[in-house]
Write a structure and sequence with these properties.
The complex is a heterodimer of chains A (about 150) and B (about 120). By secondary structure, chain A is mainly alpha-helical. Chain A has one domain. Chain A contains five helices and no strands. Chain B has one domain (about 5-120). The chains are: A mainly alpha (about 150), B mainly alpha (about 120). At the A-B interface, helix 1 of A face helix 3 and helix 4 of B.
Chain lengths: ~150, ~120
């Protein structure tokens, strides 16, 4: 067994990092392509995808890099992401034409298996488990101190 | 794309994904089984690359954007080796097995999208 301290990038965090990486790839890749190829078709929707892509990239970095500052960045970014998927999801229900292009947050991420809806919730739960005053952080302290 | 190959690919990736996720949640570290099925997914993707190069030469062309198709295919083909590398680097936990599964399931979605681009989407 490795004796590295538990941090938010280990354990279940690894799955989150992978999924955020995939979502970042999907959102950014798709939006770059769509903005270059068909911007006139649905500029709002594509710009939203680009925004989503940026948020996913920042969230990915914040989950990977240890430290309290990035921990807070992770909370803010993932919360923004959850807000984004909920707001865009609702708006796309009321005005599907405006959001018709399948972008990552339309219809609560339906075009991506609702992963964009579920993953920020999982992310926030994981961040809560890894909060600085919580049990996992205490375990990390113990391991780090034992190694000294 | 060739229909039966696409179905085979989706099937392999779906089964591989489910096996890895179930075995991972059961607490097992990456093993010959889970790495093996991930390798099978990669082999399918390599075959898919070869087929995609040859097919247009035989008249089987994509109706949608060829560029988008290839972006999906190349990205998909990079995923299993990257995930396996990561899983082997940190082989000490069940989550390494789970990520192998997540990647195979991502491949399922990507192959489905590739099929849409090839057969349904109009460029």
């Amino acid at each position: 067994m490795s004796n590295t301290a538990p941090s938010r990038s280990r354990g279940l965090g690894r799955v989150l990092i992978l999924v955020y990486g995939l979502l970042a790839l999907a959102a950014t890749g798709r939006s770059v392509y769509q903005i270059l190829a068909d911007f006139d078709k649905a500029p709002l929707a594509y710009v939203l995808s680009a925004l989503a892509g940026t948020i996913y990239i920042v969230a990915l970095i914040a989950l990977l890099v240890p430290g309290r500052v990035w921990y807070r960045v992770a909370i803010v970014t993932i919360s923004l992401e959850l807000a984004g998927v909920l707001v865009v999801g609702l708006l796309s229900l009321f005005d599907p034409i405006l959001f018709e292009a399948t972008t990552i947050w339309s219809f609560f991420g339906k075009g991506y298996g609702f992963v964009p809806l579920v993953i920020p919730i999982l992310g926030l739960v994981w961040l809560y488990i890894n909060r600085p005053s919580g049990p996992r952080a205490a375990k990390a302290e113990l391991v780090t101190n034992a190694a000294v | 794309m060739i229909v039966w190959l696409t179905y085979a690919g989706i099937g392999i990736s779906l089964v591989a994904g489910l096996i890895c996720i179930v075995v991972g949640f059961a607490g097992k570290r990456p093993s010959d089984l889970t790495l093996g099925v991930t390798l099978l997914v990669e082999l399918y993707l390599i075959v898919q690359i070869v087929v995609s190069i040859i097919a247009p030469l035989t008249g089987n062309t994509a109706t949608g954007s060829v560029l988008e198709y290839w972006v999906y295919l190349v990205s998909a083909a990079l995923l299993p080796p990257l995930a396996a590398g990561w899983a082997l680097l940190e082989r000490n936990s069940r989550w390494s097995t789970v990520i192998l599964g997540v990647v195979s399931l991502a491949v399922v979605v990507m192959v489905y999208r590739m099929d849409q681009i090839w057969n349904v989407q109009i460029a």
